[in-house]
Structure formats: C-alpha cells, structure tokens
Amino acid sequence: MRKRPHVIKAYVSAASRGLALAAAKALAGEGAELAISSRNAARLMHARASILADNPTAKVMTVVADLATEEGQEHVLKTLELSGFLPNVFVCSAGHAERKRLEEVNRSEYRAGLGMILDQAVFTTQALLPAMASLGWGRLIYVSSIHAKYPNALPPEFFLSSVARCGLLALTKAIQRQYASAGIAAFSVALGYVDTPMLRNAAVGRSADSDEPDIVDRAQWSNRYEEWSKLIPAGRIADASEFGDLVRFLVSDAADYLNGQAFSFSGGLDGSII
After folding, report:
1. Which CATH class for the 9-194+239-265 domain?
2. Does position 120 have pLDDT exceeding 80, yes or no?
3. Which of 272, 90, 100 is nearest to 190 (CA)?
4. CB count, 10 Å around CB of 233?
5. E strand or H helix that includes residue 138
6. What is the CA 49 to chain-centroid distance, rounded?
7. What are the residue ranges spanned by the domains of the chain?
8. Contact, 140 vs 92, CB < 8 A?
9. What local confidence, expressed as pLDDT, does residue 96 receive?
10. Where would I find the H helices in the chain?
C-alpha cells in the first residue's frame, strides 16, 4: 500500500465556482496546497477568498486562463512550472460546451467543446504524469457526466458535452492500465443533477456562464428543480459540497486500492448496468 505524500499539491481547473470550487474547498480542508484556474479573473479571486474564508492558512495560487484554447492550457502548465508547483492531484473540471443538438452543432463549436473538456484533460494529464510517477503517487479525477454513459438522462441539446465527457471515461481506463504500478490512480465522476450556477442557469433558460442565478431568489428556479427531483430515485438534487466529499475520499489513503472507476454521482439516476 502506497501512502499519500505528506504534502498534497492539487491543481483544480475551472474552479471559480460550482463543483470544482467545492472540490478545492474540500482539499484545502485536508491541508492541500492549491492551484486553481479560470478564465474569469473576478470570479477566480472571489473563489480564492471563499477558500481562505473557510481555511485561513490555506495556500492558494490562481491562474487566469481560457481552458478552451491550447494557449490557455499551456499558460496554466507554464505558470505551475515557473512557480515550482508540481501537482500530485489533478481535479479536471471544465465549463460547458455549447448546448446544441447533434443536427445544430457546427465544426467550430465542436472543436471548442472538445478543447475545453477533452483536450484539456488529455494534455494537462500528459504534462503532470512524469512528476507523479517520479513521486510514486498521484490522483487524477475527471469530472464527467451520467449522460456520457446514459445520454437520455438529460435533454438532447447536451449532445456535445455528452460526446466530449464520454472520452474522459476511456482516458480514466487508459491511465489505470498504464500507471497503476507507479502509484497513480485515475477516476471519473459521472455527475447527475448537482446544485451549481450552471444548473440554475439551465433551470431558468439562461446561458451556462451567466452570473444572474447566483444573486436571484431561489423561487425563480426552484419549480424546475422540483420537476427534476422527481426523476431522481434519491428524490433530490445533490449539493456541490457532497461532490467535494467524494473528492476528499478519493485522495485519501482509504481509496488506495481503487483505480479506474467511473463513479455515478447521480442519486440513482444512472440507468446503466456498468
């Protein structure tokens, strides 16, 4: 059994709010040093302040970058390298691709969606693996979705996200097979309905990137949440902090024998057998 290192250094991408911010907070609570990125500088600084409010002694580095672009992805890696920050944990989150049906997606939207979700995961992982292998320990956690396995769970306009996030499941298995002997474990988390700004935006028909649902009264989207909750066997939409709890577990020694799993974080909504 390989014990995790004394100091956890975690890079959490797209961590200015929502699920990734919850993961960053959970890791900070475990004493991890953090690097977080986002394309939105104002949100990123607010996220850092929020982490420090809960954990005043936490070390939190911020990197402003558009992860939908190759330049943005390389900027993050270069900043980490110049700062001497070698992550042994990578929580790979991303914004959401354009909400379009299969028949509506154009090539530009397709490439941007894959760049943000799949390219970021593949090439950031590629850059971080050597240091993890040298250390003899690493954890890679990819934020996927149940509609990567069970596309009918969400509306057809999530087609592009479904295609891109499905690739994260295969990436998880590829890393498991090649790097388990080096002490590196990879996981994907197939998300269902989780209370985040993105989901609130979807509930009221706004752009996924809108700030408005963070400041409006819950009454504007609670009716839609009630409808969705009826679809979920658990009868409710998850809180983002529960995702943070899962990340905390996967980085702990208690998860040492696990590797390559695609965890369904959906309250029982995932209808697939495997």
Report:
1. alpha beta
2. yes
3. 272
4. 10
5. strand 138-145
6. 20
7. 9-194+239-265
8. yes
9. 75
10. 18-29, 41-54, 70-82, 107-114, 120-135, 159-179, 197-204, 219-229, 240-251
